[in-house]
Specification:
The complex is a heterodimer of chains A (about 290) and B (about 280). By secondary structure, chain A is mostly helical. Chain A has 13 helices and two strands; from the N terminus they run αββαααααααααααα. Chain A has a two-stranded antiparallel sheet. Chain B is built from 15 helices and no strands. The chains are: A mainly alpha (about 290), B mainly alpha (about 280).
Chain lengths: ~290, ~280
């Protein structure tokens, strides 16, 4: 789509796009180019010169046990965060949709955790499960369960998943509720008259009609789990224990900033770049066809 | 929404079970925040000897005052101010540069127009998380570590906002620009007198989303603010935990966590309609 009526001039529009282009060039494309360039070198131990290694950094990474483990960790983490937050949100949205009155009030009560930063959510959950003072871990102890996410890898993963999913429920709830309310009542009522019970109606009518929303949320939540949960991981586990919660983004940070392994960190950036490009393309291709909203 | 006929909605026992389910959900969402609030109103001794109390104590004013004025590494009031500057800078900056570039791209024909549009689009694929080390180096070379411009500028480009305004401008009737041209209005007059007022709601909706985005940034301030006086509140909380085996001062930390949540929560709840609109629009 293009405007038929336009203004004349070349310098004015160039001036208008200049701020945005300058910022993208300096802070987006130049650093991204640097990351790609650096991924082909390794710096010497004194940081004085760089040695060309071609795809050496990538070969090294892909054969590195910890990096491959980080891929698996990221996959497990993202799938769990997505399933937990979408599952709870769908459950609540279905309940709220059954109400004639009051769904708006529940919406107000449920949406505001969206505003809570992942890092703050991390601190809240850390406080509840802290091994020395946490309320939940204390009661678990009374029940005979010795909670220790500092040492236990599964418990650490569980905690970062729940903390990441918790703040995300609002977002998913909002979109699920809107999706549910967009389904024509008459279709569902017709099925009810034909004697279809709730589960049958949900399975055969609601779920298929909701699928555009579900797929959209699936993609968006995976992107969230990949790139926006750094704060949760950093506050709760710092990637531990034994790198059990080191997702890819956390590894770029810990190798690049804490470990000062620039070549490897740059190569990891490039791999992430490919991942995020694929996810963005999926998101956009899909959104072209999205009907609702 | 139209009045529903109520044929498939629940009544009687089913209605109560539906409410019960929702209330359990709401309590699950509230519980961590309730505990944080309680912890911010008691003394540290009440917390380090578990279980902590379930109801608020009488130390609220002391704890919050102590956090705001003294804090642990830096006064929390200062960190709140830093967060405010960063969030406002990012939100307003993104809106301003996106409005201008969308205006240029929609209302002018100039060389490399499509190229610029694609360059802006591609920034979607370059979140700060994938370019942290080189971006840090750029900011360091500019001498922008521990500065507001260092916190704001690298995050201020926005493909989403540019798209949104472009889409909106495309729906503005051509007659308006036509009339403006006939009246001899210059492009920028048209922009400020007609286009900008028409975009008010879109700007407000986007502002809500972008303010929260800016306020909740974590990784970027963590990298570039080594000086505690420049910490933002969201990233400063973690810095309040002692390294090693010391006990954390939980009441101060929890008061800070509550303070970190209040501004964005007020924005979301107070501008709920705009927030939902912004959320739905910006994901299109």
């Amino acid at each position: 789509m293009e405007k038929r009526v336009t203004f004349k001039g070349i310098w004015l529009p160039l001036l208008l796009v200049l701020p945005q282009i300058l910022i993208t060039a300096v802070f987006f494309f130049y650093p991204a180019g640097q990351a790609i360039w650096q991924s082909l070198f390794i710096p010497d131990p004194f940081g004085l010169s760089m040695q060309w290694v071609g795809l050496g950094n990538f070969e090294y990474l892909l054969s590195d046990r910890y990096y491959r483990a980080s891929f698996v960790t990221t996959a497990i983490f993202s799938i769990l965060v997505t399933l937990v937050s979408m599952g709870v949100a769908l459950y609540l949205a279905v309940l709220a949709d059954r109400l004639i009155k009051g769904s708006g009030a529940y919406r107000t009560l449920l949406i505001w955790p969206y505003a809570v930063a992942p890092a703050v959510a991390g601190v809240l959950w850390l406080f509840m499960f802290n091994t020395r003072v946490g309320v939940v871990s204390w009661y678990l102890g009374q029940l005979g369960y010795d909670w220790n996410h500092v040492l236990n890898e599964g418990e650490a993963m569980g905690l970062v998943v729940v903390a990441s999913a918790w703040g995300r429920i609002s977002y998913n709830f909002l979109f699920f509720l809107a999706g549910l309310q967009a389904i024509p009542r008459s279709v569902i009522e017709a099925a009810a008259i034909d004697g279809a019970r709730f589960w049958t109606r949900f399975r055969t009518i609601v779920w298929p009609l909701l699928s555009p929303t579900t797929f959209f949320l699936l993609v968006v939540n995976i992107i969230y789990a990949f790139f926006e949960t750094f704060g949760v991981i950093h506050t709760i586990t710092s990637g531990g224990p034994q790198q059990a919660t080191t997702i890819l983004v956390y590894k770029v940070y810990s190798d690049g900033f804490v470990g000062q392994d620039l070549g490897s960190s740059a190569a990891q950036s490039v791999i992430l770049l490919v991942v995020v490009s694929i996810l963005t393309i999926i998101q956009f291709k899909y959104i072209e066809r999205r009907v609702h909203y | 929404m139209a009045e529903r006929s109520g044929m498939v909605e629940k009544r009687g026992l089913g209605l109560w079970l539906t409410h019960l389910g929702l209330i359990i959900g709401v309590l699950f969402i509230f519980f961590p925040i309730w505990l944080a609030f309680v912890a911010s109103t008691v003394e540290n001794q009440d917390i380090i000897r578990p279980p902590m109390p379930v109801w608020p104590g009488d130390q609220m004013i002391e704890n919050y005052t102590n956090a705001l004025v003294a804090g642990i590494n830096a006064p929390v009031a200062l960190m709140l101010f830093n967060s405010l500057v960063m969030a406002l800078g990012i939100a307003l900056g993104k809106i301003a540069i996106s409005l201008l570039s969308a205006f240029a791209i929609v209302y002018f024909r100039f060389p490399f127009r499509q190229t610029f549009f694609w360059l802006i689009f591609l920034t979607l694929m370059l979140p700060v998380e994938v370019r942290i080390v080189p971006t840090y180096e750029v900011v360091a070379n500019f001498g922008m570590l521990n500065s507001y411009s260092g916190l704001i500028l690298p995050l201020v480009a926005s493909a989403t906002a540019t798209f949104l305004f472009r889409q909106f401008f495309l729906t503005v009737p051509d007659e308006l620009a036509e009339a403006a041209r006939v009246d001899g209005a210059r492009p920028m007059q048209f922009f400020f007198d007609i286009l900008l007022p028409m975009s008010r709601t879109n700007i407000a909706a986007l502002f809500v989303i972008l303010f929260i985005y800016g306020w909740n940034q974590y990784l970027w301030p963590l990298l570039i603010t080594t000086d505690p006086e420049m910490n933002t509140i969201v990233m400063g909380i973690k810095q309040m935990f002692p390294s090693g085996d010391d006990f954390a001062h939980w009441p101060t930390i929890m008061a800070t966590s509550i303070l970190a949540m209040v501004p964005p929560v007020i924005v979301v709840v107070g501008m709920q309609k705009l927030f939902i609109r912004g959320l739905v629009e910006s994901e299109k």
